[in-house]
Amino acid sequence: PLPPEMLPHKMFDRLFGQREIGWVNRKKSILDAVRQDAERLKGGLGSADKARVTEHLDAVRDLERSIASLPPNYYKVDPPEYDGDMKDWPRIAKLQSDLLAHAFATRQTRVASYMLTKCQGLSRFPWLGHTAARHHDYTHRDGKAPGADGPDGQRIMRDICRWHVEEFAYLLAKLRSIPEGAGTLLDRTCLLYVHEHAEANDHKNNGLSMIIAGHAGHLRTGVHTRTTGTAGDLYLTVADDIMGAGLGKFPTATKKLSELVRTPAARA
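Predicted structure:
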């Protein structure tokens, strides 16, 4: 796997080119470097394509403004690290989703993984009103967090899990808002949401709940299914029967999940 990029301003630079520090200090836009070229390009386009170019440039500028609105040292964590509250994380998370959607829309990548928070869960969630203990403590219900093993602790865990799923829904909505052919970018994409554990207290991963969304042309949506086997079965099904990668096998897969795939008649 590739190392993650946790900082939106660095992800922006990877997508759109390194910003010159003089421009940043003068609060100029990276679009200034291509403004004349963009105007020449739009001059030879029809109205629909011209509108698409304008939408793209506006989206880039919106991303610039959002990144610029973050505190100057938003990426620095004061020691001790484990007590960091990540108060800017909701804004950062949405920015990362916006950047990921833009990377898909401009064909700069076709595959991505996105870890919303670290798997060990050492963060607190002040924007949800929970600062007494860390996410990790609530998952284990072992007494380290006040009330973690009771109804209050489980309510807090529910709030934390709901926030993660809401951020996934935000990414889906972002993809759905981007036109692509006769549909939207979401129609051409397959996204998988998964947690590390089904029962975090014992680190069990059997019985995982997953959400698979999008269409990618072949995904059967609007269903809830319960199946036996491994997560590898799902990964192989997505890779071969939905995305058409032609892997043929996956290390932990023993079968394919045909109930997730639209039949040829349903695709027509």
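Summary: The CA atoms of residues 195 and 223 lie 19 Å apart.
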